[in-house]
Amino acid sequence: xxxxxPRLKADTHFILQWPLSQVLLMDDRRYPWLILVPTRLNxxxxxDLTYEEQAxxxxxxxxxxxxxxxxxxxxxxxxxxxxxxxxxxHVHVIARFEDDDTFPSPVxxxxxxxxYELSARESLIDTLHARLRDIEP
Amino acid sequence: xxxxxPRLKADTHFILQWPLSQVLLMDDRRYPWLILVPTRLNxxxxxDLTYEEQAxxxxxxxxxxxxxxxxxxxxxxxxxxxxxxxxxxHVHVIARFEDDDTFPSPVxxxxxxxxYELSARESLIDTLHARLRDIEP
Lengths: 137, 137
Known about the structure:
2 copies of one chain form a homodimer. Chain A is α+β, with helices and mostly antiparallel strands and 137 residues long. Helix content of chain A is 31%, strand content 22%. The first copy, chain A, contains 3 helices and 5 strands, in the order H-E-E-E-H-E-E-H. Chain A is globular and about 40 Å long. The two termini of chain A are 24 Å apart. Chains A and B meet through helix 2 and strand 4 of A and helix 2 and strand 4 of B. Strand 4 (76-81) of chain A pairs antiparallel with strand 4 of chain B.
């Protein structure tokens, strides 16, 4: 049975389940930062998914990126599957702004995560849940 | 008419044209590092491509990642579309090793590119060209 890697679990909050992936909010208010985790066992590389799952992951990633660009009025969306630290396949989808803390650098390894206040986090999760449940990736 | 961004051109070498994208070798021998550039005008985000092109980009990315993992016996493949500096849509596909210069960090912004010797570069491009031309993404 699928279980979220404990390191991902410690840093994120669940928003909703899409056909292939869980959509998670990274608990770092410096950036609107979501993570897709395909709920498949023992998959580390996206090309280890079946072809059908690869196509679905692409559609989920594109739908999420497009929504984030629009919803947050982002200057750029960063999309990445790295997995050097946490091997469980996960795809970062991050809204970037020319005036954010680290632009134009990628976000990883720079500065420290700033956790959301509880009420701000719950409000953001509710808002994103309402937007994402209406999408059919 | 499509033209490669001059900053990408300065840092890479052409390997071959796939149905959607040019496949380029990043001129940095610290990592086997290829870049896919869809030959479409004025596209910065992958979700700005048509749905058909998005599906093709996914297949090209997966095929390239799978080949690099196998060919270089990589520990992990890093895949990313960032574009904060060069807005022309391009997808990084990088073979990573637990003993490479910066593992497990992402490669961007750490250290300095080390260019290939001409003969090593030409040999690598020939080898990759021979492998990639036989793939139908």
